[in-house]
Structure formats: C-alpha cells, structure tokens
Design brief:
Elements (H helix, E strand, L loop, with lengths): L1 H23 L18 H6 L3 E2 L13 E4 L2 E5 L1 E2 L8 E7 L3 E7 L12 E10 L2 E8 L23 E6 L4 E6 L5 E4 L6 E3 L2 E7 L4 E6 L6 E3 L5 E5 L16 E8 L7 E7 L5 E6 L3 E6 L4 E8 L2 H12 L12 E3 L7 H13 L6 E3 L21 H10 L3 E6 L3 E2 L8 H9 L14 E3 L5 H4 L12 E4 L6 H17 L4 E4 L50 H4 L3 H17 L5 E3 L11 E3 L7 H16 L5 E2 L1 E2 L8 H11 L5 E3 L15 H16 L1 H14 L4 E2 L1 H4 L13 E3 L3 E4 L8 E6 L4 E3 L11 E6 L6 E5 L2 E6 L13 E6 L6 E7 L14 E8 L2 E9 L8 E7 L8 E3 L2 E3 L2 E4 L4 E4 L1
Parallel strand pairs: 22-23, 22-33, 23-24, 24-28, 28-29, 29-30, 30-31, 32-33, 42-46
Antiparallel strand pairs: 1-4, 2-3, 5-6, 6-7, 7-8, 8-21, 9-10, 10-11, 12-13, 13-20, 14-15, 14-17, 16-19, 17-18, 18-21, 19-20, 25-27, 26-27, 34-35, 35-36, 36-40, 37-39, 38-40, 41-42, 43-44, 44-45, 46-50, 47-48, 49-50
C-alpha cells in the first residue's frame, strides 16, 4: 500500500508540473507580462506570487540582473503571469444612457496589499470617435483627477468603433469597424486593482507610437525589437534619456499599419495623475502601472493623426491664443548679475540692428532670490528700464519660483506674512503647519556665482510652497503679483521650479513612514523615491494629498498665474511654465528645460516640440544655443537658424558661462543669425494665424512629416525635419561642420524659401546644400502664406505692408488665410474684434475674401504678391479688372512678383 501512495504522489507531482508548465509555456517571450516589476526579483519571490519563473538564456548585465538582453533587447521579464492567474469575472451587466455598466468581481486576492475585489466598469460611447473606459471601486470613493473634462450622459448614435467583452475572465476588446483592427484588448494580461497598485495591459495595433511625455527621446517609439519602460512623475532634472522629467503626459498615438489600405491612427489618454510606469513590449503591447486613482482611459479613433489630436484636445482643452508680441525673439540669461551688464546686452543688440521683442531676467535680478523682489543695489533702475522697453514696443518677462522664503524677519516679506495669515501653504501630513523645503531664496549672492553645486546647500533658505488648489491662494497670488507689478510693470511671468523642485528630499524635517511616503510599489522614478528632490507625498493640498497632485502642481500654478495676469494687466496673458500636465496649454507656453549646448540636445529639441504640439501645448521651444555648458559660434549659429522656426523662440544660458546673445558673436555669424530672425519676423502673420487655428480648430502649429504624408512609409519616424502647419518644411543642419543635409522631400510640389525656385527631385531623400549661412526651408505648393515686412520688433512692425507668398500646386491652385487683431486683447475672438481673410488662387485668379472685417484700429496694406510656379511667362497682370504694370516675372525661376 505504501508503494501505491508513493506512485500516486509522483503521478500527482508530474501532473502539477505538467499543468504549470502548460500555463507558463508562452510561445514567444514578447507575450510575457511582468509579474514582479519591483527590483531584486528572485525565483522564490516570483513563485510566492504564483507566477511563472523562467530565466531567458541570454546576456545578463550586472546592472540589470532581474531582466535579460536577447533578440528583444533589455527587460524581458523572468517572472511573468501564467494563463490561469486569478482574474475578474463579470457579475452584472446593464445598459445605461451612456453605454453599459458592468460589475466585476475577483474571488481571491493576489500579491498586492488591499486589493479591491469588487469593481464597477463604465463603458461610455461619448462620441462617434471617442470611447471612454472607467473602472473604479464599487464601494469606496477614490481620488479622481480634478481636470474639467466633458461630461457626456448620452450614448453616441453611431461609432467608428465596436466594443465587446468576455465574461470569464473579464476583458474588453475594441476594434475599428471599417478595418476590424484591434484598438484595445485587455485580455493579454490580468487586471490588478489594489489600493496603491493598479495594473492593466492592452495589445497595440502596431509597434510604432508617438507621444508619452515628458521624456528626452526620438519622436518615434519603435518597440519592434525592444522592451521600453517610461516613468511619469514630474522631476527637476536636465533633459536626459530614460529619466522622468518636468511634465507628465500619458497620451500616445498608435500607428495602424495595414497593407493595401491607407494608414490610420488612434490614441489613448490615461487620465491619471499618480506616479506611474508605462511598459511597452514587442508583442506589441502596453502596460499601465499606477499607484493611485482609478482607471480612466480615453480611446480616440481618427483617419489622421490630426483627427486624434483634435479629439484629445476636445477632452483636455484647447490652447490659449498668445499675445502677438510673444511670437518674436526673446533674450535671457542667468547671470546678467547687474543692470550695467543688462543694459550693455540691450545696447549691442540695438547697435547690431537685431529684431527682438522680449527681454527677460532670471533669479539673479531678485534680492537674495526672493520672489516678487528685485535687487535695488545691483539692478538699480530696472523699473525705468522696463518702461523704456514699452516705449519702444518691447516687452519684459520676469521669473517667479513657487518656493516662498520663511526666514525673513517678521513683517518684512509680505508674500510669506500674508500667505501664512491666509493659510495658503501646503502642510505636513495631518497638520496645519506648512511643510518646509529648501530652494533658492536666501542664498548668499557670492555663492550664486559658483558652479560647484555643493556650496549651494550651505546657504539655501527654508521655503514653503503655495497650494494652488486652494481658492484662497488664487487671491493671494493675484494680490502679491499685482503689488509687484506696481513696481515693475512686467508683461509676462516665467514660472520655474514648479515640479515642485526641492533641494532636499521630502522636507527639511523628513517625511513620514506611512504608505503615502513609502508605498508598497514605487515606479522607476529617478532617485528611487517619490520624495527625491521634491516634497513628501504625504504633504497636504486643499484637494488631496501631494501623492495624488504632485504631477499637477505646475498645471495649477499656471492656471493661477494666467488668471492673475488677466486681472492685473487686463490683456492677453503670457506665461511660461517648466512643469506641465494635460490641459496646461490653456494657460501657458512651455520650454524644454535645462538643456545643454550640444548638437545632440539641439536635435532632441525637434522631437520635443513635435510631441508637445500633440500634448496640447503648441507654444513650445528650447533654450537656443543651450542652457548648460559653453556654446560655440557654429553651434549657436545653427541653433539660432533652427530656433527661428520654433513656435516659442528664446535664447537663454546658464550662470558662469559666456554671453551668447546674437550680438556677441563675429560680424559674419551676426549676419547669418539676423537673416534667420528676419525670416521668422516676416512669417509672423502666418504663425499668428496658426495659433488662431490651434485655439479654434485644434490644429498643431508644427507636426512631423508622417502626420501629413502617412502613406509615404519612409516618413515614419523622421524627426530631423518638421512641418510648420501644412505648408512649410524645415530641414536644419544638426551635425557639426557638415555642409549638406540629408533630407526627405515628400511627394508634392515644393519651392525653396525665400528664392521661390521649384524643387526638381521629390519623393526621396536628397542631399541639400547647407553651408553655415543657410537653413533649408521649403514652401509647399497649394498654399498661400501671409507675411509682413519686418520691423525692429513685432509691435513697431504691425503697420508695415503685408506680403502674400502664393505657391501654386501642380494644378495651379492655392489657398490660405490670415487672422489679425490688436494682438493683446483678452476677448478679441469672443467679440469678433478681428479680421479674418481667406485667399484663393484658381485658374490664375487670386481672390481675397474678408470673412470678418471688424478690426479697424490698424489699417492693413497689401504690399507685394509673389506667385511661384508659373509654367508659362507672365505677360500681364490685372487688379480689380484694371491693368497693373508694376510686376516682374523671373523667367528662370518661374516667379512673378507684383507690388
């Protein structure tokens, strides 16, 4: 009998092994989903979670012992989910006015504490192209992102997508009706839904994606042979690859690759403000792992990428219309140090006859780096200097950091005294005492001139942080900003360090040991702690804990600053913010942070501005010539040429480095930079019209070639060139000492700008001449570009004559438009106090239609019309039926100009 039991046990063990092997036997490594995303995984830890353990036979690097490098690259998990891992099942299913509501249950907890076993699933068919999936606790209310999104209570009558779901295990499947292509499929991996750990996955339509900010990375995310992890937690750190940076934008566009049919696009937006990881793998598939909130996922379908972006902006809000003057050239540096140096820069820019509109100052202009002050010893006369800017049509922007000094003598520093009285500062956990960090205020000026950062910490002052989710903070912020504006009449505000940045981890007093400060899972953030160089997650806002709102700090500060400027100046606000979140574009512009003076950083600025246009913050740029490190004349010249085609153009560099304003370089370099600036200024009406389209019809200012030419496969991932609107192609030289650019010219009609010469070779890569004095710019046939003769700055040049650049298509047609108002009023669009003109060229006849003509304050004069692409000689021109003899036809270039 004993032998029988031994045999029986052996058989049972063999059966268990056989069953487990089957449950873990995935045919491809790309189908593994990580069951132990924390570091230091082991076989014991993996099997304790009842997951599969199977090391990959490959190269194992000492730095990454938990993952492997093989044909799929790094991060192939050794610990992954078996097929029979416990999953949710549908318990109830009911139809609703908005779509369907399900309840799902799980019979047993798995490996994360406080797992929620009873969930509600809402399937919302919001529009024909927008589907929303919400999964939340059926019993207890959880934190939800305080972002105003559309509330849709009625199901769309018809949709481009079809939704189905499986009963047991529960899974959602969304397909595009027209092609049957999968847009979302959660069946690929288990749903884990615990109090501080939510993880769900979906199959991707292809391995090619755009989006996911803010990260320094190429434009195209290609996971054909790569596993990739992206972390989202706002952090003050110079742009570096594979690091979470200043903003959080969990939005992407997936390219739908399908043979024998046009390329389509769709997008996902995960509305969640908690720290998260997003993993991409070559299945292809995506996994979202967040440590709070709920699952609130939007899916956008569209025939084009612009359709997807438009649907996304419909949810997060359209970008604001900027003041006209902000489209000009901006100049700043950290380290003017005194008013004499600042005046010297302004004078040499004037003497060299550079057009520029906006002068900035950094924190060195403050008194001991205290917000809402200026150093009256080193910057004596700054208020009068700003007023002189205004008399010349120029503008001034100053910097404000969120950290407010708490160490000044009582009664001497109103921002702190009044803020303390109003109780508007963020507080410690379960306390009314403000949480204290260390940032710039109070630092000794002599140490500010040192580059060695370890000296900083000896002299930093203690600071507190405004809670911009508190309604009282808005009044306080407006009041202290207005008081400072009475002293220095600034025109815009630069809000920096608002991740929020902190020079100590957590607070001056440390953080708690509770689960907010030490959660059971920490995404792969820089520093391996949520409090690394920021505030304790347990710190309290009026709306919730910092654990939930950290990623939105810059968003709420930008909103408050925008409102303050409207109240104080009663003009269109200009705000520049480093940290951002979906919806920030309604209130602020953005720059890409503390980049470096390298050709690599110059290149990375292009995918950054393209991505932020997708994210709804189209008014974006990078510090031209580089912020950190010493620039060179060649690099700065090339960067000024490229920067002339950024939506937001600012030259800015760091403390301790030589000046890099254009007028400091050689005469030859100055002339090249000046030509780039003149190109920008001549195109200002075109840029302004693009901003109007962005604000009204959700079109990006700049875009990748692939978005406009999706069926030319070669454009997929091109990010060393870009399009302004649909009409201008920019192909900068990004390589040191190179004199040619290997550029792709899409299959269409193109003309060199500004010469108007027609390109003979299109639809292929070609080597364009690119000596130092040239940036290659081309105008697309079929478009009419409104331009203006430049002035010393945009405001003084507003009365100059306009120019129409008419680029004929292959059929001889072209269209365009122009939006024009006073450039500064808050309500120009709402009150229709503007002019809107439409241009059309058909069969050699150019027509100008005034659709709206309500703006009369500044007369608009048409000076020159230049038409490109005539196949026959032009022998006569008529204007309003009358012969017009003042024209010139260039026979070799087929260009006709009339004035």
């Amino acid at each position: 009998m004993a032998h029988f039991y031994v045999v029986k046990c052996i058989v049972m063990l063999f059966f268990v092994y056989y069953v487990c092997a089957q449950q873990c036997d995935h045919t491809v490594e790309a189908a593994r989903f990580d069951c132990h995303p924390e570091p230091f995984v082991s076989q014991h830890k993996c099997l304790t979670r009842k997951c599969c353990w199977k090391p990959v036979s490959s190269l194992i690097t000492p730095a990454n012992k938990n993952r492997s490098t093989n044909s799929f690259g790094e991060n192939v998990p050794w610990c992954y989910y078996p097929r029979d891992f416990p999953m949710y099942q549908i318990k109830t299913n009911e139809s609703t006015a908005f779509g369907q509501r399900l309840t799902i249950v799980k019979q047993q907890s798995t490996y994360m504490p406080n797992e929620i076993l009873h969930l509600t699933v809402d399937l919302l068919y919001e529009t024909s192209q927008r589907f929303r999936l919400r999964i939340y606790d059926s019993t207890n209310k959880r934190f939800e992102v305080p972002l105003p999104v559309p509330v849709v209570e009625t199901k769309a009558n018809a949709t481009d997508y079809e939704v189905s779901f499986s009963q047991a295990p529960f899974a959602i499947l969304v397909k595009r009706k027209s092609t049957g292509l999968t847009l979302f499929d959660s069946s690929v991996s288990p749903l884990i839904y615990a109090d501080q750990f939510i993880k769900f996955s979906s199959r991707l339509s292809s391995s090619f994606l755009y989006g996911f900010g803010e990260h320094q990375q190429p434009l195209l995310i290609n996971v054909t042979n790569e596993w990739k992890k992206l972390t989202f937690w706002t952090r003050d750190f110079p742009p570096t690859q594979q690091v979470n940076l200043y903003g959080v934008h969990p939005f992407h566009i997936n390219v739908e690759m399908k043979s024998n049919s046009p390329t389509n696009f769709h997008g996902h937006f995960f509305l969640n403000s908690n720290a998260m990881d997003i993993d991409l793998q070559p299945l292809p598939a995506i996994t979202y792992t967040t440590i709070g909130g709920i699952i609130d996922l939007y899916l956008f379908t569209g025939a084009t990428a612009q359709d997807v972006i438009q649907q996304y902006w419909d949810v997060i809000g359209k970008p604001a219309m900027p003041p006209y003057w902000s489209l000009g050239f901006h100049l700043c540096r950290y380290g003017y140090n005194n008013i004499d140096n600042l005046r010297a820069v302004i004078q040499r820019m004037h003497d060299s006859e550079f057009p520029y509109d906006v002068q900035w100052t950094d924190i060195d202009a403050m008194l001991s780096h205290l917000d809402f002050t200026y150093d009256q010893t080193q910057f004596t006369g700054l208020p009068d200097l700003v007023r002189s800017f205004h008399s010349e049509g120029k503008h001034y922007v100053n910097i404000i950091d969120p950290g407010i000094s708490k160490t000044q003598p009582s009664g001497t520093y109103p921002p702190y005294d009044d803020g303390l009285k109003r109780a508007i500062f963020m507080t410690k956990f379960n306390s009314t005492e403000p949480i204290t960090g260390k940032v710039w205020p109070g630092m000794n000026r002599r140490w500010a001139r040192l580059v060695d950062s370890h000296h900083y910490f000896l002299h930093l002052g203690l600071t507190v942080f405004p809670d911009f989710t508190n309604a009282s903070t808005i009044d306080w912020w407006t009041n202290i900003t207005g008081t400072f504006h009475d002293t220095i009449p600034f025109d815009g505000i630069w809000i920096d360090m608002n991740e929020p940045s902190n020079f100590v981890d957590g607070s001056h007093d440390g953080c708690t040991d509770n689960s907010l400060d030490k959660p059971p899972f920490i995404p792969h953030v820089l520093g391996d702690s949520l409090s690394a160089k920021t505030l304790c997650p347990s710190a309290q806002h009026a709306l919730s804990f910092h654990y939930n709102l950290h990623n939105m700090y810059g968003y709420f500060e930008a909103k408050a600053t925008n409102l303050a400027l409207k109240t104080i100046r009663r003009k269109r606000p200009f705000v520049l913010s480093r940290s951002s979140f979906p919806g920030s574009g309604q209130y602020t512009a953005h720059w890409t942070g503390d980049n470096r003076a390298t050709h690599e950083d110059m290149y990375f600025s292009i995918p950054a501005i393209l991505s932020f246009n997708m994210f709804g913050i189209p008014n974006v740029g990078a510090d031209i010539c580089g912020f950190e490190l010493e620039t060179t004349e060649e690099l700065c010249t090339r960067w000024m040429q490229l920067g002339a085609f950024y939506p937001f153009m600012r030259n800015h560099n760091d403390l301790g480095h030589r000046d890099q304003d254009p007028a400091v370089f050689s005469w030859t370099a100055q002339q090249i930079m000046k030509q780039a600036l003149l190109m920008r200024y001549s195109l200002a009406p075109f840029w302004y019209t693009l901003h109007h389209q962005a604000a009204m019809t959700s079109r990006t200012l700049v875009q990748p070639l692939h978005f406009e030419f999706p069926n030319e496969d070669i454009t997929l991932g091109i990010d060393r060139q870009f399009l302004i609107g649909r009409a201008i192609l920019v192909s900068p030289n990004l390589v040191s000492k190179a004199t040619t650019v290997h550029a792709y010219i899409p299959q269409d009609v193109w003309y060199q700008f500004p010469s108007g010469i027609k390109m003979k070779v299109v639809g292929t890569f070609t080597d364009l001449d690119a000596p130092l004095d040239k940036i290659n710019v081309h105008v697309r046939g079929g478009f009419i570009i409104p331009m203006q003769i430049p002035g010393a700055n945009l405001m003084t040049g507003r009365g100059n004559p306009f120019t129409l650049l008419v680029a004929q298509s292959a059929s001889g047609n072209a269209t365009g438009n122009l939006y024009w108002d006073d450039g500064d009023s808050i309500d120009s669009i709402e009150t229709k106090a503007y002019n809107y003109l439409e241009f059309s060229l058909v069969s050699g006849v150019l027509t100008i239609n005034a659709i709206v003509g309500s703006y009369k304050d500044s007369p608009m004069r048409l000076g020159i019309v230049q038409v490109l692409g005539f196949s026959k000689a032009v022998t006569s021109v008529t204007v309003n039926g009358n012969d017009h003899r003042d024209f010139f036809y260039n026979i070799p270039d087929q260009v006709c100009s009339s004035s």
